[in-house]
Every structure is written in C-alpha cells, then in structure tokens.
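#lab-general

N.A. 3:47 PM
ok so I finally got the sequence cleaned up, no stray characters, all 363 residues accounted for. can someone with queue access submit it? mine expired

B.Y. 3:52 PM
send it over

N.A. 3:53 PM
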Amino acid sequence: MSSPLPAAAPDLPDADARWAAVVARDPAADGCFVYAVRTTGVYCRPGCGARTPRRENVSFHATPAAAREAGFRPCLRCRPDDPPRSARHAEAVARACRLITAAEEPPALAALARVAGLSPFHFHRVFRELTGVTPKAYAEAVRTERLAAALPEAATVTEAAYAAGYGTAGRFYAAAEQRLGMAPGAARRGGAGIAIRYCVAACSLGSVLVAATERGLCAILLGDDPEALVHDLRVRFPKADLAEAEAGFAARVAEVVAFVEAPRLGLALPLDIGGTAFQQRVWAALRAIPPGRTATYAEIAGRIGQPAAVRAVARACAANAHAVAIPCHRVVREDGSRAGYRWGVARKAELLRREKPGPGDLE
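B.Y. 4:20 PM
back already:
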C-alpha cells in the first residue's frame, strides 16, 4: 500500500504570507520553505515550537540547502533537514497498514504502534487522522474484503469465515451483517431473498426514491423520472424481492424529503449501506465531511490510507446509493470546482448551497 498523503501544502507566494505561517507555527507550511534567524544563525521549519523571533531578524529560504548556503545551521529542535512530520506520520501509518493487510489475525494496537515507532495513544490518534478510521476498523475492513472474496467460492459460510481470518464462527456472525449489509448467507447468494420496499415522492429537487430493507434505508435516489428511479433500484438489487411500500412507509419518506430540503439538519433513520469494504471506507470518510465543507477526491483517498486510489474513490462515490445521506455531493475537484454528480451537477450545486451556514450559524 502506498503511503497516505499529507495535507496539501499551502501556496505562500510572498514574505507576508510566510511570516504569518511562522507566527501561527503552521505545520501545513512545513516543506514549503524554511526561515532563518540572523541573531542565532539557525534555520527552522515554519511550524517550529521555538520562541517567535523578531521580524527584522528573519529571512526566508526556499529549501534547507539554500539556508545552509547562506551560512545558517539547522535547528536541533525542529530538525528542518528531516522529512516533515506529516510525511513521517504518513509512512508510519502505511507500514502499519501493510502489516494489517499481511496478517492473518488483526495485530494488537501495541504491535502496530511499535512498527510505526509511536506510542499506542499517539499512533491511534495519527492513524485515525490520516485514514479516517481507527486501526481496529481498518483491520475489520481488510478482513471483510477477504470475506466478500471468499463467500462466492466457499463450500459453506463457515469455511469462508475461517479463510477470512475469523478465529471462531461466533465472532464472525456477531459482526457479519453490519459489515456486509445483509446476512452472510444472503451475501453468498448475491442478495437473493432480501425484501426491499420502496416509494417515490416529489421534492424540490425533482423526484426522490426511498427504499428500505428490514435493517434500514438501502437507497435514496434522486432524479426527474420516477420510472427511471425504479429501474435504477432494480439494477442495483437484481435478485431482491422488490415491491412498492404500504401506507405505513410514508413517515420514513417524509423524513427523507425533509432531510433533502434541509440537509444540515441530518437524518436520524438507520441506513443499510452494504457495499465492499473499500466502498464502506470511502463512504465513512464522506460522512465525516461536515455540512458546508467540501473535500477533493485526493483528500478522501489520503484519509482512507490509499492516496493512489483517487479513481477508485471516484467510482465509490458513483456507486453510492444514498444520495445526501452519504454526501458525495461534498466532493469537488482539485481546483475547487464541482465535479460530476450522478444525480446531476445542478442538484449538487443546490445541495451545497443549502448546506452553507447562515449568518447566525457557527461553523
């Protein structure tokens, strides 16, 4: 697995912006430049914790080598010649991810922290910041990927469970439905026998289809043509028992419509997400983006620990069956412009507009 990407470096074109980064001790500026202090003869990272020098004593240099050529020596506190902390953390997490992927049983937190060269507490915090999930959740996702791959070929569900690294069948069944989005036997049969009830209603964005299993909402689809939405549902769940919902389903539909109208308020209904382990990690990262904020595909790939998987992240966004609830509309291009949206770029723009904080809101 490739190393998770550190946060994108800011653009600091002038001395005033660089000085502001030094005063703020902004770690995001590390790697963009170094600053040197004439009175001490030392050069530092922008994020160095040393006392802020006087502005008139500071000069800026594009690289540590340039600062050395100017006669300065590296700070022993921030070690500006070493890779930035973000890069060191990214490599440490990548080593831990490789260990998790190669292990038959999920490694203990202490073992992962030793590989990363960090304390267990610090490693847990850094891992979650970079991947968007805890080490335990990442290990479970890897094991679920093995399970999903083993189920179609295994003679029994139990055989697939042991092949995926579950030490006992009891531990497997305790978590399997939450991970797979359906019972393991049904997953092995391609979802056959799952009952899905649905209803199409009108909303300000056109039509919305709401579908649910006994576990929760399995689809929220947006569009202009109700028949096209039903067809999309049948394509997504070709082996399920699909039928229009009865009158009692109306309350759930009304709650979804209200959520689409005001997405900042959130949705309290349970979701039956399903999907592959990779898709689940992407969707979890999307749900962690606060309303009113956006992220790029590359940032999402970095947060789940697979920075090279930008296109796979885009495909996971396109496979999302829970419009607004799993907010793929909050993903934008690198330049901040709105990327494609399977339910229409105009709807994406409107959803982002609705999520902007009002004058009295706190971000």
